[in-house]
Amino acid sequence: MSAVGEHGDGPPRHPFDVVVVGSANADLVVRVERHPAPGETVLGSELAVHPGGKGANQAVAAARLGARVALLGRVGADQHGRLLRESLEHDGVDHGHLHDTPAASGIAMIAVGPQGDNSIIVAPGANARVTEGDVLQAAPLLRSAPVVSLQLEIPLPAVLAAARLARRAVVNLSPAAPVPDELLALCDPLVVNEHEAALLLGVPGEADRQAKSLLALGPRSVVITLGADGAVVAEDGAVHAVPSPRVAAVDTTGAGDAFTGALAWRLAVGEPLTAAAAFAARVGAAAVRRPGAQDSYPTMAEVEDL
Ligand code: ATP
């Protein structure tokens, strides 16, 4: 059998535009008047439970725009795992490679202060059980997709194995952590926000320079997201600014995942990086107009209206 999508005329025959290898968490959200100091207890609002996790968020963001997406990862065989599967299914994300695991599903305990200021504790649970073996078992799936999208909420050996198999790896180095040079060299692009860029480089700085410095670490291309200021793209030694539309921001939770999911899809359909980032910035902007992460992600019609 020939590799899917590589031969012949007509539309591509690969089953998925984007395969996301990454985390799925239940976000347990409580609003608080103020964040507790160490040793202190505060009363909060009623608990709200939302599907989240960087991997699932990116997958849903791309699928809601029309991409064909699969998510590879792990959830527990528990109530949160069922919630996560339901939300993926609702948006048409394939979860056949999201394995049930004898561990609790990953959760993020999120306290939201009066100004929308978050403090977050993640218990990775089943996400920590994603292995290199899981990835190798799905090698044909990963090889068939034009883009594999990765983040750092699952163990590094699984991320590295997926990047090695990918035709093109979009790698969101978040949460920021030191990674081997081999992974950096496989990023196309490496996607980070300003804070993560500063952590990786050891110094804060102006975005254009940071992008060039990151490019010097070895990735094939770099995108730094800049919140309301959009993003910068660095490729082949050149840096391009990408604006974000002006919107009334209500909640920026998950904006970076919306951006990365959209970026991965546009690259998968063959768009050049700067144009794909410009589209992704519109998706990120649309996402901050509504509360929540996945709940806030736009459809294609909403992006076109922006
Ligand atoms: P988060 O961690 O909250 O998910 P992030 O820090 O990873 O987000 P940001 O740089 O804040 O990512 O946002 C990603 C993209 O979303 C930006 O590049 C931009 O296009 C869009 N965006 C974010 N905040 C705003 C805003 N206030 N106005 C317009 N666009 C925004």
Give a quick rundown of the structure:
It is an enzyme of class 2 (transferase). The protein is of the alpha/beta class.
Number of helices: 11
Content of β-strand: 15-25%
β-strand number: 13
Helix content: 25-40%
GO cellular component, one term: cytosol
Catalytic activity: D-ribose + ATP = D-ribose 5-phosphate + ADP + H(+)
Active site: 257 (proton acceptor)
Binding site for substrate: 25-27, 53-57, 153, 257
Structure overview:
The protein is an alpha/beta fold and 306 residues long. The protein has a single domain, classed as 3-Layer(aba) Sandwich (UDP-N-acetylmuramoyl-L-alanine:D-glutamate ligase). The chain is built from eleven helices and 13 strands. Strand 6 and strand 7 form a beta hairpin. The termini are far apart. Residues 1-8 have low confidence and may be disordered. Bound molecules: adenosine-5'-triphosphate (ATP). Adenosine-5'-triphosphate is lined by residues 193, 225-228, 230-231, 244, 247, 249, 252-257, 259, 281, 284-285, 288. ATP binds at residues 193, 225-230, 256-257. Catalyzes the phosphorylation of ribose at O-5 in a reaction requiring ATP and magnesium. The resulting D-ribose-5-phosphate can then be used either for sythesis of nucleotides, histidine, and tryptophan, or as a component of the pentose phosphate pathway.
Topology:
Layout: E1 18-21, E2 25-31, E3 48-52, H1 54-65, E4 69-76, H2 79-90, E5 98-101, E6 106-112, E7 118-123, H3 132-137, H4 139-144, E8 147-150, H5 156-165, E9 169-172, H6 181-186, E10 187-193, H7 194-201, H8 207-215, E11 221-225, E12 231-235, E13 238-242, H9 255-268, H10 273-287, H11 300-305
Parallel strand pairs: 1-4, 1-8, 2-6, 4-5, 8-9, 9-10, 10-11
Antiparallel strand pairs: 2-3, 6-7, 11-12, 12-13
Helix pairs in contact: 1-9, 7-8, 9-10
Bound molecules: adenosine-5'-triphosphate.
